[in-house]
């Protein structure tokens, strides 16, 4: 039994490593999707002359409501399958319990005959649960723990409402900042989301402060600064910022909101098995549709963003593609990456969109980048690798402690 527990711990330890690696793969997938989405959004705003950041953000967020269709369509089938699993589990448990008691009784009877000792039946029955306990699979203990921590539908709805507000505020603030300040300043201040994520995560116990993490965040911000400033110097014809103080404040506010909702999700969900993901995103989409539509008329009334539907079929197709791939799919993968790794790892990973965009500009637009660009991209990548190293070591240490305690509990 002890060897079995060691083998189980090794298997679960390996599964945790695979889970972390899967999260990194999802993160890289999100980076590729967001880079493609940024080129598409640039074409929508500039090439198609549809500069409506609120409308685009509203449509993107509303696409989350499509997850509810899959949830309700599969609800009846899941109920049937769940009942079958419950019935099967009960039958299996009853059969296993009876066989354990019967085998224990036979073993006790043979021992009594060999040693000529009479053992009361009550004693055999009382020892049965203790010996049956030694045959409990530790995996069942972990599954029962996950089920106990699973969020109820009401809790998922509350979390979806909070996330909807913070997510929309972060995205709108970032988009709106571009109307008042230049792209370089907005990009640099947006990279401060890594700093906010680290600080907020440390305050609530999600992230552990370390020198390596701090250096990784600082280095990443320096890399973003180098690339953004170099871009400003190479585009002197860019129109001057109309209100740089307001624009910079909005960009910084967007970075703060991003840190808030990223840490919030990790804090409340912890593990992807604790929440029904389609239901969560479905609530986000529904809350977005019913709570935020009045802002169309408010923004139109104050002439901040005049209400206008996309004027062409091509524009509708581009917006729908961006919503389904750039938001509907990518944010699902993004949340899985946050839960499988850490908020700080994912936040710094999103900075990889900058060097990936440089590669995209070089390949698709034939733009030649200076050495400063590539050095800044290298620094950003170094910061991402450094924070991954720190987070991976922390996870290894936590998993060792967790499975050591699990082995001790099961053996006892």
From TrEMBL:
It is found in: Membrane. Pfam families: SLC35F. GO terms for molecular function: transmembrane transporter activity. InterPro entries: EmrE-like (IPR037185), SLC35_F1/F2/F6 (IPR009262). The keyword Glycoprotein does not apply. One of its GO terms (cellular component) is fungal-type vacuole membrane. It comes from the Eukaryota. Keywords: Membrane, Transmembrane, Transmembrane helix, Transport. It is a multi-pass membrane protein. The chain crosses the membrane at residues 20-41, 53-74, 156-173, 179-204, 211-228, 248-267, 279-299, 314-335, 342-360, 372-392. Signal peptide: none annotated. Belongs to the SLC35F solute transporter family. PANTHER family: SOLUTE CARRIER FAMILY 35 MEMBER F5, SOLUTE CARRIER FAMILY 35, MEMBER F5. This is Thiamine-repressible mitochondrial transport protein THI74.
């Amino acid at each position: 039994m002890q060897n079995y527990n060691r083998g189980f711990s090794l298997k679960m330890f390996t599964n945790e490593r695979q889970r972390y690696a899967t999260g990194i793969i999802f993160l890289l997938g999100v980076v590729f999707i967001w880079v493609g989405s940024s080129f598409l959004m640039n074409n929508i705003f500039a090439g198609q002359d549809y500069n409506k950041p609120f409308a685009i953000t509203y449509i993107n967020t509303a696409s989350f409501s499509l997850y509810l269709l899959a949830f309700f369509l599969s609800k009846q089938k899941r109920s049937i399958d769940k009942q079958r699993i419950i019935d099967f589990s009960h039958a299996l448990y009853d059969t296993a319990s009876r066989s354990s008691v019967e085998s224990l009784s036979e073993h006790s009877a043979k021992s009594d005959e060999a040693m000529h000792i009479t053992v009361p039946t009550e004693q055999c029955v009382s020892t049965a649960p203790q010996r049956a306990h030694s045959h409990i699979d530790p995996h069942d203990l972990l599954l029962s723990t996950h089920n106990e921590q699973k969020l109820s539908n009401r809790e998922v709805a509350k979390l979806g409402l909070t996330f909807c507000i913070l997510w929309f505020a972060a995205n709108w603030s970032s988009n709106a900042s571009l109307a008042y300040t230049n792209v370089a300043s907005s990009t640099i201040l947006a990279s401060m989301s890594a700093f906010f994520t680290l600080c907020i995560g440390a305050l609530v116990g999600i992230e552990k402060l370390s020198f390596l993490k701090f250096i990784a965040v600082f280095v990443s911000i320096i890399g973003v600064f180098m690339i953004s400033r170099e871009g400003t110097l190479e585009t002197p014809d860019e129109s001057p910022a109309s209100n740089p103080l307001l624009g910079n404040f909005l960009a910084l506010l967007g970075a703060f909101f991003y840190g808030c909702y990223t840490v919030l999700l990790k804090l409340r969900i912890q593990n992807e098995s604790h929440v029904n993901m389609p239901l969560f995103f479905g609530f986000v989409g529904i809350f977005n549709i019913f709570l935020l539509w009045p802002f169309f008329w408010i923004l139109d009334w104050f002439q901040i963003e005049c209400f206008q539907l996309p004027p062409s079929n091509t524009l509708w197709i581009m917006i729908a593609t961006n919503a389904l791939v750039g938001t509907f799919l990518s944010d699902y993968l993004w949340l899985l990456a946050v839960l499988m790794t850490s908020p700080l790892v994912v936040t710094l990973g999103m900075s990889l969109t900058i060097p990936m965009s440089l590669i995209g500009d070089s390949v698709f637009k034939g733009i030649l980048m200076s050495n400063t660009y590539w050095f800044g991209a290298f620094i950003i990548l170094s910061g991402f690798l450094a924070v991954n190293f720190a987070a991976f070591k922390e996870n290894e240490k936590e998993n060792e402690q967790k499975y050591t305690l699990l082995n001790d509990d099961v053996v006892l």
